[in-house]
Amino acid sequence: MFPELNNLLNTTPDQTEQGKLTLLCDAKTDGSFLVHHFLSFYLKANCKVCFVALIQSFSHYNIVGQKLGVSLTTARECGQLVFLEGLKSAVDVFFRPQEEPHPLQFLREANSGNLQPLYEFVQEALKPMDSGEAAWRCPVLLVDDLSVLLSLGVGAVAVLDFIHYCRATVCREWKGNVVALVHDSGDAEDEENDILLNGLGHQSHLILRAEGLATGFCKDVHGQLRILWRRPSEPTAQRDRSLTYQYKIQDKNVSFFAKGMSPAVL
Amino acid sequence: MTPAPPAPGPPRPSSASPPGAAPRHREGERGPRVAGEAAERGTERAAQKATHDEGKAQRNGELGDRLRQVLVVGEIVDAPPLPCGGAGQWVVTPSEGVRRGTRRILEMLESLLALGGLVLLRDSVEWEGRSLLKALIKKSALCGEQVHILGCEVSEEEFREGFDSNINSRLVYHDLFRDPLNWSETGETLPGGPLEALRALCRRTHPGPVTIALDSLSWLLLHLPCTTLCQTLHTLSHQDSCRGDSSPGEQVHVLGLLHEELHGPGPLGVLSSLAQTEVTLSGAMGQASAHVLYRRPQQRPTHQTQWFSILPDFSLELQGGPPLEPQPYPDPRVPSMDPTTHLTFNLRLSKKEREAKDSLTLPFQFSSEKQQALLCPGLGQATSHIFYEPDAYDDLDQEDPDDDLDV
Asked: Would the CB atoms of B177 and A161 count as touching at under 8 Å?
C-alpha cells in the first residue's frame, strides 16, 4: 500500500468506498505496482479478497506483499484471501475428470468462449458467510490481468460479460469492489484488446492509467499516472476529475509528484 | 417538409394557424426564418423565402406585419452547416423578441426531443453520456410521458439515483443488468433475453407519448446481430406510423446510448443513418460539449455545437463556450489564503516608514551638498597618507610593477 497514492485517491484503509469498479491500465510501462497496492490495501482494510492471479506465482505476490507489510500466507490461512493461481491450476484442468467444474474450464473447451465457471468460482469465494466466524468488511475481487484471457483465446465480449456479472454480484449485491488490470498495447491492430479496454472503461468508476514517458526511459521518473473519475458523485468533482502525476517506484514505496516536479529535476 | 408559401387571405394569429401552416411555425422555432435578417445569414431557401415574404409585404402591409409576427416566433437563428466549431450555437436576436417581450431560447433538451424517432447519444470513456441520457429522461418524464428503460449496463438503483420520486414513478426499468445471460438461473431474467425484451417494448400499446431509453445500444450491439438490432430499432421508433397515428403528441422517442469506441465504422454508420438526431459528446478543458446533427425529413441536415454542464439534479446548464485556458479552479478543500501572510520579512510599509523611505537620499543621487563636498576637499583628505613597507622577499620589478598579477 502506497500512502501517497491513497492521498491522491482520497481514501484510507479505514474508509473505503463500496460498490466501485476500478480499472487499472498500463501503456508502455509496467502497471503491476498498482495491483500490489490494491492487494495490500484491501488486505489491510480487512476486506475479504479473491485474487485471480494469472500472470505471476503466489510466492511472487507474497514477496512483494511482505515488502508492503502484508503476509499473503497468513491471509490465505485465516480465510481472508482466496488465491486462484492461474499458472498452477491451468495444468490441473487437464488432469481431472471433465465433469468436475474448474474455474479455468475454458482452456479445455475449444470454442466455449464462456467464463461462467470462473464467475462461479469468484461467487463461491466471496459469498458472504451466514455464520459470522470472521467478519470481513466487504468482498473484493482483484484480477491480474484480463488481457491474458484474451491471449488464451477468450473473446473480449466474454471477458466483458464476466466482469459484468462480477459487478452485478460483487459491487451491486454485496456492496464490494472490483479491481482489474488491462494492458493497453497501444496497437490499433489489436481490436479485441481495444474493445475490452474501452468496454471496461465505460463500466468503471475510476480509471488509473499508468503510462511510460513519451520522452523515453528516465532514471528518476518512471512514468506518469492519469487518474480519471467517472460518474462524479459531487458536483465540484466535475472540475478536477482528471489528474496526471508522475511517479518514481522505490524499493518499498512509490513517490508521486506533479508533472515536471521530480526532485531530481528541481 | 418544404414550407408552403403563405396563403393569401385574411391573416390569422399564429396560435390559430391552419394545419398547413403549423409545420412552418414549428420549424420557425429552429430555422433561420427571421424575416428581416435572413437574407444575410440564412440558407438559400431562407433567403428565397424572405424575398418572397417581403414581396408580399410590399403588396400588403398588414399581411406582411402578420407574417413577420409568425416568422419570428422563435428568435433563433440557425447557423448554416458548419464543420465542428463553436460558431453554430443558438443565437438569440434581440431585436424583435425584446420588443414583444417573448424572448425565448429553445432549450437544448427540447430541441433534441423535438424530432422524435431515434436520438443517438454517442459518448466516449472520457465524456460519458449517461448523465445527458438521464437529463433527457427527466425532461420526458416531466412532460408527462411514460419512460421505459432497457437497462443493460447499470443497476436499477444506480440508474434511479438522483431522480426524485415524482420522476421515478414514471420510469419503468426493464432489468437486463442483473442476469442478462441467465448464468445465475434465479429466474429473474427477462424471458427470451435482450432481443425479446426489445420486442416486448415494441408491442407495448400504451396510450399517449412514450419514451424508450436503451442503456446502452453498445451492449445490445455486442450481443445481438447488427441487422436484427437495426430492424428492431426501426420498428421501435416507427411505432406511431405503424398504428396510423401521426399526431405529433403521440410520437415515440427512442434514446440510444452508444459507446462509439467499441464499434467499427460499419455498425456506427448504420445506426447513425437510422437516427433522426445524433449527439456526439466531447469536450475540452473539463467542459463537455455536444455536437448535434439534426436530420429533418426532406431537409438539409443541420449541425450545432453546444457547450453544457449537467447539474446533480440532471438539469442542463448551457455554457457560452470552452474555457480559453485551463483556469486554476479554486479547490474547495483548501481554503484560499493570502500567500503573503506568514512571511519572515515585511512587504508592506506603514505611513511613517514610507515617509522615511521617500526622504532618504540614495548614494547615487547627486545633490548640491555632495557637489560642494567634492569641490572643496576637507582637512581630513589632505592629511591622509599611505604607509607601505615592502616585504624582505618581495620581488618588485620597477619596470613592470604588475608582473605578479598574471595578466
From this structure: no
Residue segments in chain A with a per-residue pLDDT below the cut of 70: 112, 131-134, 188, 231-241
Contact B293, B301 (CB under 8 A): yes
Q: A3-258 belongs to which CATH class?
A: alpha beta
* Phi, psi values for residue B84, rounded to 5°: -50, 135
pTM (predicted TM-score) = 0.72
Sketch the domain layout of chain A as residue ranges: 3-258
**Cα separations in angstroms, B388 against B385, B391, B394, B403:** 10, 9, 12, 18
Give the best residue of A10, A189, A202, A227 to mutate against chain B (max B CB count within 10 A).
Answer: A202
Q: Out of B126, B180, B261, whose CB is closest to A228?
A: B126
Alpha carbon of B125: minimum distance to chain A alpha carbons (Å): 5
HSE on the CB side for A27, CA within 13 Å? 17
ipTM: 0.90
A228 bridge partner residues: A207, A242
Is the distance from CB of B229 to CB of B150 less than 8 angstroms? Answer: no
| Bridge partners (DSSP) listed for residue A210 | A26, A225
What domains are defined for chain B?
135-242+249-264 (3.40.50.300)
β partners of residue A25? A182, A209
List pLDDT tens digits, range A60-105: 999 999 999 999 999 999 999 999 999 999 888 888 887 788 899 8
Q: Which residue in B250, B292, B6 sits closest to B122, CA to CA? A: B292
B380 pLDDT band, cuts 50/70/90, is low
Residue A194 phi/psi, 5° resolution?
Answer: -65, -40
Long-range pairs for B201-204: beta carbons < 8 A, 24 or more residues apart:
B201/B148, B201/B150, B201/B174, B201/B236, B202/B232, B202/B235, B202/B236, B202/B239, B204/B148
Beta bridge partners of A183: A26
> What is A65-120 written as a DSSP string?
HHHTT--HHHHHHTTSEEEEEHHHHHHHGGGS-TTS--TTGGGTSSS----HHHHH
For residue B224, which of B263, B255, B187 has the smallest C-alpha distance?
A: B263
Stretch (H or E) spanning B358 = helix B351-359
Q: Does B158 contact A at CB distance below 8 Å? A: yes
DSSP category for residue A15: B
Closest residue by Cα to residue B67 from B1, B13, B20, B103: B13
Phi first, then psi: give them for residue B365, nearest 5 degrees.
-80, 130
Three-state SS string across B219-276, please? HHHHHCCHHHHHHHHHHHHCHHHHCCCCCHHHCEEEEEEEEHHHCCHHHHHHHHHHCC
